[in-house]
C-alpha cells in the first residue's frame, strides 16, 4: 500500500486482501496506514501458506526502498490502484 504521492510504502500480510485493502482505504484501524494515509494498493503477492506469507513479508520489510520500488515497477509501473484487480479475483 502507498499514499497518494507514493512517498510511503507499507508491507503487510493478510488472509483476505480485499477486506484488508478496504480497511486501509477507509481508515478502519489506527495503524501505520491510517497515520500515513496509505490507501492505494500498488502491489500484492498470493501465497498458499501463512508461513510462506509471513516469511515473504519479513523479507520485503528488510529490503531497502529502491528494491521495493523495483519490485512494484515490474508489475505496476504506473502505480495504478490494484484494488479493482483484487476484487475481480477470489482471494
Number of helical regions: 5
What is the N-to-C succession of helices and strands? HHHHH
Report how far the terminal alpha carbons are from each other.
17 Å
Low-confidence stretches: none
Mean of pLDDT? 90
Shape: globular
| Helicity, as a percent range | 40-55%
Largest sheet: none
Estimated structural class: mainly alpha
Strand content: under 5%
Number of domains: 1
Radius of gyration: 12 Å
Query: Strand tally, please?
Result: 0
Summed up:
With 91 residues, the chain is mostly helical. The protein contains five helices and no strands. Helices cover 45% and strands 0% of the residues.
Question: Can you offer a commentary on this structure?
Answer:
This protein is mostly helical and 91 residues long. The chain has one domain (17-84). Helices cover 45% and strands 0% of the residues. It is built from five helices and no strands. The model has no long low-confidence stretch (mean pLDDT 90).
List the helices and strands and how they pair.
Layout: H1 17-25, H2 32-35, H3 50-61, H4 65-75, H5 83-87
Tag the structure with descriptive keywords.
globular, 0% strand, mainly alpha, 5 helices, 91 residues
Amino acid at each position: 500500500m502507498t499514499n497518494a504521492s507514493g512517498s510511503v510504502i507499507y508491507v503487510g500480510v493478510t488472509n483476505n486482501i480485499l477486506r484488508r485493502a478496504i480497511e486501509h482505504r477507509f481508515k478502519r484501524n489506527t495503524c501505520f496506514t491510517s497515520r500515513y494515509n496509505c490507501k492505494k494498493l500498488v502491489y500484492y503477492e498470493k501465497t498458499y501458506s501463512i508461513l510462506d506469507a509471513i516469511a515473504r513479508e519479513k523479507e520485503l520489510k528488510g529490503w531497502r526502498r529502491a528494491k521495493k520500488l523495483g519490485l512494484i515497477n515490474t508489475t505496476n509501473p504506473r502505480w495504478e490502484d490494484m484494488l479493482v484487480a483484487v476484487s475481480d479475483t477470489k482471494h
